[in-house]
Amino acid sequence: MDVFGALANPVRRELLQALRDGPLPAGELAGRFALSRPAVSEHLAVLRQARLVVEEPRGRHRYYHLAADPLAEVSDWLHPFERYWRGRLTALRDFVEGEEDL
């Protein structure tokens, strides 16, 4: 699966957010969700295949690390759209602020 396909799922996005502050063991990651451990494990496998996380065995535990390099691909793809959204949000702000003056 590619990076964009992996990021399409909200559970996988939450897993990546959980790893922003550093590596976590699989059990702790699974404990953050109302899903079974095998379900979380499947999501982690998709993230591994997309190279968004790296698995590190430590004794009986498996720690997961965020691999940020593939996210640069997403950033590069999104960059041209940033100007569009910035303009739209500015227009929305101007409209809302104009309504407050009425």
TrEMBL record:
One of its GO terms (molecular function) is DNA binding. Residues 1-86 form the HTH arsR-type domain. SUPFAM superfamilies: Winged helix' DNA-binding domain. This is DNA-binding transcriptional regulator, ArsR family. It comes from Paractinoplanes atraurantiacus. The keyword NADP does not apply. It holds the Pfam family HTH_20. Keywords: DNA-binding, Transcription, Transcription regulation.
